[in-house]
């Protein structure tokens, strides 16, 4: 188990803390199952990392668990963060769970 740094926007931090976001999609592996990260004063553990090819089905099927209200919001955000990302590209979905308070 390693404590890693994962960056989130304030909106995504709010979604994590409220339980509306339980995974994050990244263009590379940022951690492994068992690794921990902190959001504000809360500790989370990565429980799985799945490689997935970007597709319409992926975007429509995962926007809610990513903390977005619509698949368009999810798509727009991914495009802002990864401007060269296109359908068929491989991304890594990091699933995580709340562990407890972090001091």
Description:
- This protein has helices spanning 10-17, 56-62, 71-81; strands spanning 23-26, 36-39, 42-53, 90-101.
- It is built from three helices and four strands.
- It is globular.
- It starts with 9 loop residues before the first helix and ends with a strand.
- The chain has one domain (10-101): Sulfate adenylyltransferase, CATH 3.10.400.10.
Low-pLDDT residue spans: none
Percent in helix: 25-40%
Instruction: Give the total of domains.
Output: 1
Overall geometry comes to globular
Average pLDDT, rounded to a whole number, is 97
CATH architecture label name: Roll
How are the SSEs ordered, and which strands pair?
Layout: H1 10-17, E1 23-26, E2 36-39, E3 42-53, H2 56-62, H3 71-81, E4 90-101
Antiparallel strand pairs: 1-4, 2-3, 3-4
